[in-house]
Amino acid sequence: YMTMVITSYTPAHKISRILVLSGQNSTRITAIIWSILNARQHIEVKIQRSSNELCYMHIDAVRVQSDDGDVTLRATLTDITERKQSEQKLRIAATAFEVQEGILVTDEHKIIVQVNKSFTRITGYQESEVIGQHASILSSGQHDARFFQAMWEEIKSNQFWQGELWNKRKGGELFPAWMSITTVLGEDGYPSHYVGSFLDITLQKQAENVLLDARRHLEKQVERSVSELQRLKDEGSEVSTALKVMLKLRESESVDARNLLILELKQEVMPFLQKLRISSRDAKQVRLLSALDANLQRLISSYGCATSISSAYKNLTPKEIQVASMVREGTSTKVIASTLSLSPETISIHRKNIRKKLGLDSKSDNLRSYLITLDK
Fold it and tell me: Which of 181, 217, 339, 355 is the most buried (most CB within 10 A)?
């Protein structure tokens, strides 16, 4: 600080020379001092140094009048810039302290020394009710000793912890909170305070529960659908197996019936017709018996064979189907061989295989004639 004495006869330029020693704006200070001389004794001003730096100045002035009537002003100028900056920082800190998060400050023994308005809003506790109380006043009883032991070990190691826990309101209601705890170290390097901040995440947890319920419901639906599909698949497999067995039995029965009928015709009917034809004296009767014999022979050879092209071709290879189709159209073996770029011998082998697969065992059965009789 700087002290100067100014009388009512001190010229302004002298005051300016005195004040310039402290780097103050002399014109501004002179006007202030003369106002103090006439009225006030204390004043704080914000001025600009010669370096353009702003600073705060506190002026204490005492007005002294001598016996002969001279007036003297004794003024002390104190630079209070650091104090003003500290006050400003405190105001900023106080504003930052009143945020949406609940905040509590404890000493090194976890005794609450300060809380903010959000703390009161969230917990229901007034400031006067918790100052001097242990921070465990918020304990919900939902966490065991191992939980808090691990939490404080992490705070001790990192001077910080963050996580989800359950707290208790004043009325005993439990609520989930997302909490952060920070250690404040003193000048000696040891913890002097702890600052805890927390948010009530009740709505968030409710939303999570709704989503979890929806997910579980969906998973159950999917599980039921998968089970139903598996059941249908198993039933379909069983039905398919049963159909295959039935078809095989039917096919076997059909083959047995065909063989039995053919055997009956060959052993009983055909010999009887042959005897009638030999013993008959009537030419017309002989012709009828011969026609009947021929028809029975054709019936025996074609019985049980396919009646449509698609069913007849199902056991043929692609090349055999080509050959059979050309035979049906009346194409000769030579032309078929030339068209398919095969030898006539190969075509003959194909024809033989086709006859075998179609059940044309008798040499008298004409392949083309049989194919023509098939439905498209």
Answer: 181
For residue 2, the tally of other CB atoms under 10 A from its CB is: 14
d(CA 92, CA 99): 12
**Residue 308: DSSP 8-state:** B
Contacts of 55 (CB under 8 A, 6+ apart): 46, 47, 48, 49, 79, 81
- Give me the residues paired with residue 166 across strands: 176
DSSP 134: B
CB-based contact 354:306 (threshold 8 Å): no
What is the sign of the dihedral through the CA atoms of 139, 140, 141 and 142?
negative
Q: What is the C-alpha to C-alpha distance for residues 167 and 351, in angstroms, rounded to an integer?
A: 92
Contacts of 56 (CB under 8 A, 6+ apart): 44, 45, 46, 79, 80, 81, 83, 84
Q: Which of 256, 269, 329 is nearest to 299 (CA)?
A: 269
Residue 161 burial (C-beta neighbours within 10 Å; 0-12, 13-18, 19+): buried
Residue 118's Cβ-side half-sphere holds a number of Cα atoms within 13 Å equal to 15
Sites in the chain below the pLDDT cut of 70: 1-41, 63-66, 69-75, 90-98, 239, 247, 249-259, 262, 295-308, 362-365, 375-376
End-to-end CA distance of the chain: 122
Closest CA to 140 of 109, 168, 170: 168
Beta bridge partner(s), residue 75: 4, 61
Residue 187 phi, psi dihedral angles, 5° rounding: -65, -25
Q: Give pLDDT, residue 77.
A: 75
* Burial class (CB within 10 angstroms; exposed 0-12, middle 13-18, buried 19+) of 279: exposed
